[in-house]
Write a structure and sequence with these properties.
220 residues, mainly alpha
């Protein structure tokens, strides 16, 4: 048997790490949609990193949930993980965590089935990540019997919020990064790169008769 306090700390630590990783996933997702890339980390590398960190975040989220259920200090069952606001202990804040888990499951399942789904359906469900993340932040701040408002947890949550807001501003909210503005800029580039059309004189070219030159004139 594992000590209950050890499971409590394990659950809290895994939850904080999961939040940091999901923040990184969201930031990289925003960067990918904004076609971010550099010589050091090209766009394909950003996409691969996004997927790799997503798997790590799922592992820590599972550890957070399993350790919270196994703790036994509070009454929390498997159903409470997926059914929002039905927990006997702290139903509102635990319910927010259940909502975040349900949204995450929808995003994960549709991502695995992306090749078999219409693009609009996948994109619409994938946008649920924008709702899942702030709900998860609120769950972390409000649950755990007040641990969420400790200085170090507030600092971690603040850094995560600043990272997401900065990514949104950098790749989504700036007027020059808006999709319509990008399309207009691409249209101007295509227009500027079109080959210049040189007007052709419609007058037919007449051949000039060749006059043989004398020997002296040809020499001069």
């Amino acid at each position: 048997m594992i000590d209950s306090s050890a499971l409590w700390y394990l659950s809290r630590a895994a939850g904080v790490v999961a939040l940091v990783l999901f923040t990184a996933v969201l930031v990289l997702g925003i960067a990918t949609s904004g076609r971010a890339g550099s010589a050091v980390l090209p766009r394909a590398g950003v996409l691969r990193l996004h997927r790799s960190i997503s798997l790590s975040a799922l592992v820590f989220l599972a550890l957070h949930i399993v350790s919270a259920i196994a703790d036994g200090y509070v009454e929390l069952g498997v159903v409470d993980v997926f059914l929002p606001f039905g927990s006997a202990w702290d139903p509102f804040w635990v319910g927010l965590g259940a909502v975040a888990v349900d949204l995450l499951l929808a995003v994960t399942i549709t991502s695995l089935l992306r090749r078999h789904l219409p693009v609009r359906l996948w994109r619409g469900v994938h946008l649920a990540a924008y709702a899942m993340w702030p709900i998860a932040v609120a769950h972390g701040l409000g649950s755990a019997g007040g641990d969420g408002v400790r200085p170090w947890t507030l600092a971690v949550s603040g850094v995560c919020v600043l990272a997401v807001v900065g990514a949104l501003w950098r790749w989504r909210l700036r007027s020059d990064r808006h999709p319509d503005a990008v399309r207009r800029e691409q249209g101007r580039l295509r227009h500027d790169l079109r080959p210049a059309v040189v007007p052709v004189d419609p007058t037919p070219v007449t051949s000039t008769p060749v006059v043989p030159l004398g020997a002296g004139r040809a020499t001069r």
